[in-house]
């Protein structure tokens, strides 16, 4: 059956498939997406697809419909059941076949979606397959006249845990009390399998019950409000470290023993240093929103720093092109060459635990080595005319601007360690601002100045 183009494009986005269950995504729609995906993969020589799903109420039925769509096109299916997104990537790498993960990550319970990859966890985005899939769903997916594929079930959770632990030297780990907030997401499924087997680790779980309604808080630790419960839990339990995972547990956020959030930039720098210690001279990728401390430390540790646009498709592409050993983003996505170039928050967590546990200092002291600047975090502004607002902001800084960079939005260097980036959202009428400077007072001054300029344009156009 054919479908309206506008409805399909609303759901099949630049990096994945995502929408409201019932009104935008249902079993028939998923069946059609699966058919188009299977046809594309069959044309590229694939004979099997691995499928995993998160804990949302709609995920089992939607993933079953997807399996039917794949087998109707003659490909076999391996179902791994409940999984984190990086566990699905592991399955794709282990079985050397394309994969589909049913999740809407940190979005509310009413949403669901699909993250697709080629064999070896290679990403599929708008320019690498999703456009082909959406065009075929719009036109109508042709039926397959060959035999139907077979479906098998396979549990890869223990293998996933063993593989991650094999990539990090945890032999010198001292006893650690580790508080983990799973946010009722898939971290409650994977954490016991990966960290719960370590004799030196005492897990202090919070919200491990799998519940796709997210009854305690949103499963989005990028929002500071969703870290408050973990910060309190760390202090109350006298934990050495706190870890928070998002809904599909592919991102990991860190809290120190004092209850203070550790920036993903600092985690990126720490993991980069550990990876470079075993391969001096390797390339490490960082997106342009990470702290300037990241490329500084990469170079100091003997590595080559490579700057990327924001977004997993760009970093994964650069990982494949350059053979980079590691990549990190300000959003707490961490990519590893030894994990098929894909991202794994749990693998990053193992690196932080290893770094903490092989020395005696508390985490706050350890991470101070990687925190050289103050930063604003990402601040969003709803605007009617983003280019006009950006132009107004740039003009207002005048001679303070040392240089401009247009790799992704505009990055403005103000000198003496101060810079900011303004970029538009791909999906919403938003301008995103990130600021970094030597002191929090300087950060505040730049944020307030930019905000005032944007407000002035919004008022004049109202």
UniProtKB/TrEMBL annotation:
<dbReference type="Pfam" id="PF00408">
    <property type="entry name" value="PGM_PMM_IV"/>
</dbReference>
<feature type="domain" description="Alpha-D-phosphohexomutase alpha/beta/alpha">
    <location>
        <begin position="268"/>
        <end position="373"/>
    </location>
</feature>
<dbReference type="Pfam" id="PF02879">
    <property type="entry name" value="PGM_PMM_II"/>
</dbReference>
<dbReference type="InterPro" id="IPR036900">
    <property type="entry name" value="A-D-PHexomutase_C_sf"/>
</dbReference>
<dbReference type="InterPro" id="IPR016055">
    <property type="entry name" value="A-D-PHexomutase_a/b/a-I/II/III"/>
</dbReference>
<dbReference type="InterPro" id="IPR005841">
    <property type="entry name" value="Alpha-D-phosphohexomutase_SF"/>
</dbReference>
<feature type="domain" description="Alpha-D-phosphohexomutase alpha/beta/alpha">
    <location>
        <begin position="159"/>
        <end position="259"/>
    </location>
</feature>
<protein>
    <submittedName>
        <fullName>Phosphomannomutase/phosphoglucomutase</fullName>
    </submittedName>
</protein>
<feature type="domain" description="Alpha-D-phosphohexomutase alpha/beta/alpha">
    <location>
        <begin position="11"/>
        <end position="130"/>
    </location>
</feature>
<keyword id="KW-0597">Phosphoprotein</keyword>
<dbReference type="InterPro" id="IPR005844">
    <property type="entry name" value="A-D-PHexomutase_a/b/a-I"/>
</dbReference>
<dbReference type="InterPro" id="IPR005845">
    <property type="entry name" value="A-D-PHexomutase_a/b/a-II"/>
</dbReference>
<comment type="similarity">
    <text>Belongs to the phosphohexose mutase family.</text>
</comment>
<dbReference type="Pfam" id="PF02880">
    <property type="entry name" value="PGM_PMM_III"/>
</dbReference>
<keyword id="KW-0460">Magnesium</keyword>
<keyword id="KW-0479">Metal-binding</keyword>
<dbReference type="InterPro" id="IPR005846">
    <property type="entry name" value="A-D-PHexomutase_a/b/a-III"/>
</dbReference>
<dbReference type="InterPro" id="IPR005843">
    <property type="entry name" value="A-D-PHexomutase_C"/>
</dbReference>
<dbReference type="Pfam" id="PF02878">
    <property type="entry name" value="PGM_PMM_I"/>
</dbReference>
<keyword id="KW-0413">Isomerase</keyword>
<feature type="domain" description="Alpha-D-phosphohexomutase C-terminal">
    <location>
        <begin position="378"/>
        <end position="452"/>
    </location>
</feature>
């Amino acid at each position: 059956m054919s479908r309206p183009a506008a409805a399909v494009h609303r759901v099949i986005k630049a990096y994945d498939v995502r929408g409201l269950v019932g009104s935008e995504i249902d079993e028939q729609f998923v069946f059609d997406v699966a058919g188009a995906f299977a046809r594309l993969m069959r044309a590229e020589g694939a004979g099997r697809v691995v499928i995993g799903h998160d804990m949302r109420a709609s995920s089992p039925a939607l993933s079953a419909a997807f399996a039917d769509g794949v087998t109707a096109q003659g490909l076999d299916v391996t179902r791994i059941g409940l999984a984190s997104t990086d566990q699905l990537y592991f399955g794709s790498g282990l079985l050397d076949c394309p994969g589909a993960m049913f999740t809407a990550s940190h979005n509310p319970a009413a949403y669901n979606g699909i993250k697709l990859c080629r064999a070896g966890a290679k990403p599929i985005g708008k320019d690498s397959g999703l456009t082909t899939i959406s065009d075929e769903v719009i036109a109508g997916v042709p039926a397959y006249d060959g035999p139907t594929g077979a479906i098998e079930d396979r549990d890869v959770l223990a293998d996933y845990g063993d593989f991650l632990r094999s990539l990090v030297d945890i032999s010198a780990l001292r006893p650690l009390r580790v508080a983990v907030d799973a946010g009722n997401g898939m971290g409650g499924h994977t954490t016991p399998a990966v960290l719960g087997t370590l004799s030196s680790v005492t897990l202090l779980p919070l919200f491990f019950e799998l519940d796709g309604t997210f009854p305690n808080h949103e499963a989005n630790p990028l929002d500071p409000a969703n870290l408050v419960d973990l910060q309190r839990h760390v202090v109350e339990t006298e934990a050495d470290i706190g870890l928070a995972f998002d809904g599909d547990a592919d991102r990991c956020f860190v809290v120190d023993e004092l209850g203070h959030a550790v920036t993903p930039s600092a985690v990126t720098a720490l993991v980069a240093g550990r990876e470079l210690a075993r391969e001096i001279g390797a390339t490490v990728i960082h997106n342009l929103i990470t702290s300037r401390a990241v490329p500084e430390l990469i170079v100091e540790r003997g590595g080559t720093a490579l700057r990327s646009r924001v977004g997993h498709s760009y970093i994964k592409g650069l990982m494949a092109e350059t053979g980079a050993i590691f990549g990190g983003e300000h959003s707490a996505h961490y990519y590893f060459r030894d994990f098929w170039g894909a991202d794994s928050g749990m693998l990053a967590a193992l690196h932080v635990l290893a770094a903490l546990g092989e020395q005696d200092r508390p985490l706050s002291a350890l991470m101070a080595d990687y925190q050289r600047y103050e930063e604003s975090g990402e601040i969003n502004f709803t605007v009617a005319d983003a280019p006009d607002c950006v132009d107004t902001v740039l003009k207002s800084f005048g001679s303070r601007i040392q240089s401009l960079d247009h790799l992704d939005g505009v990055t403005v260097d103000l000198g003496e360690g101060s810079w900011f980036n303004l970029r538009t959202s791909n999906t919403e009428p938003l301008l995103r601002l990130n600021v970094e400077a030597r002191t929090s007072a300087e950060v505040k001054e730049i944020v307030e100045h930019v905000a005032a300029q944007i407000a002035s344009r919004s008022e004049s156009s109202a």
